[in-house]
What we know:
It is a single chain. Helix 2 (64-78) crosses helix 3. Helix 1 links the parallel strand 2 and strand 3. The protein starts with 6 loop residues before the first strand and ends in a 13-residue tail after the last strand. The protein has helices at 31-39, 64-78, 90-101; strands at 7-11, 16-20, 43-47, 83-88, 106-112. The protein has a 5-stranded mixed beta sheet with strand order 1-3-2-4-5, with helices on both faces. It is α/β, with parallel strands linked by helices.
Amino acid sequence: MAESVAHYDWGGDGPPLVLLHGLAGYAGEWEAVAVRLRARGHRVVAMDLRGHGDSERKPGDTGASAHARDVAGLLDRLGLGPAVLVGQSLGGRVALRTAHEHPRLVRALALVEADARPASDVRPT
Length: 125
């Protein structure tokens, strides 16, 4: 990971879950969910996407592939792959890109308020 990316780790011994926040969020917002998921037998980690939370505030690259590299780097560094990626909004798009570019690291996706359309195709309703 070229940029500084922070993460929270709630531990656990079960199948790994990585929680990815939305555009205006940060990893700590997942705490209540993470505690419940850990209690259900999962290893739970959430990361601050670049430009958010405790990660590098003004990263040089904020493109989808850069975010996916960060997720892949974290999974490799923590030895968590393949993991289930749970992404909300922007985090869902990052999860999709990570699965596309680093499929060996992704077991499954859970997307909340996210879809596969390019951002340029998304229009307000």
